[in-house]
Amino acid sequence: MTEQATPWQALSGHHYLAGGYHLGQGPTHIVTDPATGLPVGHYADATTDEIAQAVHAANLARRQWWAASATDRAQALHEVARKLTAGAARLGEVLTREMGKPFREAHWEAGAGASAFAYYAELARHDAGRVAGPAVAGQLQMVIQEPLGVVVCIVPYNFPCLLFAWQAAAALAAGNAVIVKPSELTPLTLLLMQQAFDHLPPGLVQLLCGGSEVAQALVAHEHTHAVAFTGSVRAAQAVATTAAMRFKPVLIEASGNDPLIVMPSADIRLAARATAFAAFLNCGQVCTAAERIYVHEAIYPEFVEALVAETRRLRVGNGLDKVDIGPLVSQRERERIEAMVARALQQGARLRCGGARPPELTQGWFYLPTVLEVDHQMDIMHEESFGPLAPVCKVASLDEAIALANDSAFGLGANLFTRDLAEAMHAIAAIDAGIVWVNTPLNDNDAIPFGGRKLTGSGRELGAEGLAQFRQAKMVMLAPELQDDEEWFPYPDQDAFPHPAITVSQQPAES
């Protein structure tokens, strides 16, 4: 009797094309469970023919989708949300197995994706443009908001369900088709997620696996029309450069190096717990993770001790067990974090806890959550760590903390813990970031735009701004009938220049 394949193993090596799963024809690669180092499945690189098939199917489906009523599209997106909610536990298990995060976080992620679809199902039918006061009497002059066409979504490994949902929900609600290229580290979760779209027109939502070559081919294709990308700065620049050759709109969320500020009025115990969450959620593999912690000198020693105590309480292990912190996503990522910590120690950082692999976890790519006391000039304060690191720096005032917070190439999010309303208002205005959280770390809201500044990227996800990202305006002027107009040719003689034409001398002017 043979062992029955799991749902994700059965989908290994497939793409989702034109409404169904198709076995890929390109080279295959192993997907590894980061908690065990063992294979959990595999994926296939999309071929040139498969890319062409997907783009063709998407362009057929988008026209059918846009021809439907706004009510029908809304009902279809609500059905996506219902299916995602019903399948959240199964999606969460797959995500934990191939990415490593604790099941609680993975289960939540699938549900949060459903929330985005429910939100945009309603928002998109609220309006489709506006009517302007006519510049010509008796005419109807208006703006119609239309879809862009086929949107290429390139999503990372850390929140594949959530980030794809944010992009796809808005893109579909705006009337577009979507082709998603998942991370090579987490293709199985998004393959399984495609079952939530099987009631939509075939080709409206599709998935092609592969690496950067597949992503670039989709971005460069003459029959894709926009790109939504989340990933590294270098990859984002490559995507934006390719898209610019065809003037395609690009939504970019590249990197973050987010500050967190703790002021004396904050409850130190709660602030330490909140900081541990902000720094170590998803093993620190969060673009909005607190990666630079600035603490007022009046409470610095007490806060650091409280943060160390909270950090030592965290349970590290397989995300399917009763744990708080899972592994890093790959061996390469763990080695990168180890090198970053070693460099910080070389530059004079003080290790307070962590800084090593858990001795009892010999398989997988685990690393203990780490607290370091640092100076702002150290490299660790100017690079995106994207791992379980909490570097803490002492400051003398809120203004100094804000100045150091703004001393970054990135500008995604920032946290502030204070009970002083004046401090909160000042920081909100002065911090150069797209998001500021005051006493509420790392929360989001489907109705409020998410995005950053500087090298973090451009554009916004979520909110009305997220919907606008995938729409284009069309100016319409409608007259009831064609009537003669005195503005047309021939122009009246009385409107000519009142003097005869004068021949201008070609002689050079005297100096």
How many E-type strands?
A: 22
Main beta sheet: strand number and arrangement?
7 strands, mixed
Total helices: the number is: 15
**Radius of gyration, Cα only, in angstroms?**
27 Å
Multimeric state: single chain
Estimate the global geometry from the Cα principal axes. globular
| Computed structural class | alpha/beta
What gap, in angstroms, lies between the N and C termini? Answer: 102 Å
Low-confidence stretches: none
Mean pLDDT: 96
Strands ordered across the widest β-sheet: 14-15-16-13-12-18-19
Estimate the strand proportion.
Answer: 15-25%
The portion of residues assigned to helices is 25-40%
Structure description:
The chain is of the alpha/beta class. Helices cover 36% and strands 20% of the residues. The protein contains 15 helices and 22 strands. The strands form six sheets. Strands 14-15-16-13-12-18-19 form a seven-stranded mixed sheet, sandwiched between helices. Strand 18 (413-417), helix 14 and strand 19 (435-438) form a beta-alpha-beta unit. Helix 3 (70-86) packs antiparallel against helix 5 (103-123), helix 4 (88-99) runs antiparallel to helix 7 (187-193) and helix 5 packs parallel to helix 6. The longest helix is centred in the N-terminal third of the chain and has 21 residues, at 103-123. 51% of the residues are buried. The model has no long low-confidence stretch (mean pLDDT 96).
